[in-house]
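INFO batch 0412 | record 1 of 1 | parsing
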Amino acid sequence: MTEVAGTPKSAPDELSLAAEFGTPDRADWERLVAGVLAKSGALPEGFSGPPQSLLATRTYDGIDIQPLYTAEDAAPPAGFPGLPPFVRGRKPEGNVITGWDVRSRHGHADPAAVNKAVLADLENGVNSVWLRLGADALPLEGLADALNEVYLDLAPVVLDAGEDYEAAAEALLAVHSERGVPAGEVGGNIGADPIGLHAQTGRAHEVGPAAALAARIAGQYPRLRTIAVDALPYHEAGGSDAQELGASIATGVAYLRALTESGLDVETAASQLEFRYAATVDQFLTIAKLRAARRLWARVLEVSGAPGVGMSQHAVTSPAMLTQRDPWVNILRTTIAAFSAGVGGADAVTVLPFDGAIGLPDNFSLRLARNTQTILLEESKLAGVIDPAGGSFYVENLTDELARAAWREFTAIEKAGGIVAELSSGALAARLAETWDARSRRIATRQDPITGVSEFPLLDEKPVERPPLPSGVDGGGLPRVRYAQAYERLRDRSDAHLAEHGSRPKVFLATLGPLSAHTARATFASNLFQAGGIEPVNPGVTDGLDGLVRAFRDSGTTVACLCGSDATYAEQAAGAAKALREAGATEVLLAGKPADHDGVTGYVHTGCDALAVLTATLDKLGVS
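INFO prediction complete | emitting tokens
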């Protein structure tokens, strides 16, 4: 071997990176954290607890998420992929060989339009289709036309026909028969979910007919599932992850009882179920939720006598997180949600189009939805690793904590008589409403920010228009909420005012002192007011108090907000507020923490109830 000049003659046996640094421990980290908190003023005087407790965040299920997880944070063993408790996935190979099932959703009333969209999906990476049937969606008699030229032995069909699931099953099986598809090759899911209908409509639906249908189908069509355990109604009612999981497991148990009473053994009965969960922008909670769901169902089947059957999961990007305003941000939200579903081990994933909260999606949004998954699978190779989150101290602990919280919810439902009894009594709805109230408070105070809506809104954005969505299942059951809805109602008020008066409601930003003194708080106030559709008028640096008053009179509004530093407020706030009131201001707000400033009528600051401030401001401005 020829030796190259200037190279070492021998290399070390082992490359040890960063060997010159000492090994830090938790005590070192805690000491550094305490120092940072003390400098920032976030460490209370006399505080003696662990400093990381001040940085912990609490979920809606009461789970405290710590800022640091290490090997000291032990979690129960997660087992192996493809084996009970299936935390690490239902299949030993995960999704490595084929990827997860990319499933697209369609519900247009025109069979030809559905057929065109379905064929485009299947030609461009989609594996299965999810069809919504009904009077306001795809008509039952149009099912065959919608599936024209679809290779049904290769592309399973999942139905959502509401109460008409028996007729839908007959129609779908007739199409398979006409196309010559062997019974053993028929896949997909009939989508019968009478308990989910109860949750949506408020009316009890008998489980027996669905169980009888499953018993008939199971013997002839071994690959076709009959029952969908849809947890989306609980998610869309504003519920927490544990509430969604607990209700779904209770629903699964109710179906398991009915199916075995119809003559199926436990293993066959379990194979008739597919569970549907929401995937949200909170990637770690989504990953943990899917892993915890498999663990919970594995425990149910273990005590029921079928320990070897894993949960089949269908993850859907959350409808509740979609926004109508600045809907392009939904593309990012659904991408994160789809990523989380894939990492969490979902068997099938549906990415809802970014304009799904506005109306029927167009071809562009459908293409983006399917390509989101294609990029994750083909370009990012996300399915190339079995359980990529496995072994993470954080994820394993979060999975365990969430599973325990969900099990408590499940057992509470069972002790109350089961999921049907809880829905009939309204007890479950009351718990979901409590969670939605807590979530609403955090949204109102922008502790749960919504980009493009409650934070960094685009006031002059051109609204995206789409044909109206189908009305869906009759109301009367659990409410369907979207996290952005309260802010968007304020924006609707602003739009109506703009259409009637030719201008938006305005707030004058009374900037005090030099640019460096007022920029930060003027930017904060501007962002906040635009979230309510209120246009901020920023005069910049003015020529003293007289210049400020002139700029206010020229702004054409009667509401002002003082913006400056604390030192500037101490010197100028009272005088500026008095001058503005004398110039016609009906409200003088101040951007900063509440203090004693004469003439100031309200305060806007981090953590304030932004929705209350914006609503009151629109009221003061006479915006109906």
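INFO post-check: The chain is about 45% helix and 10% strand.
INFO record closed
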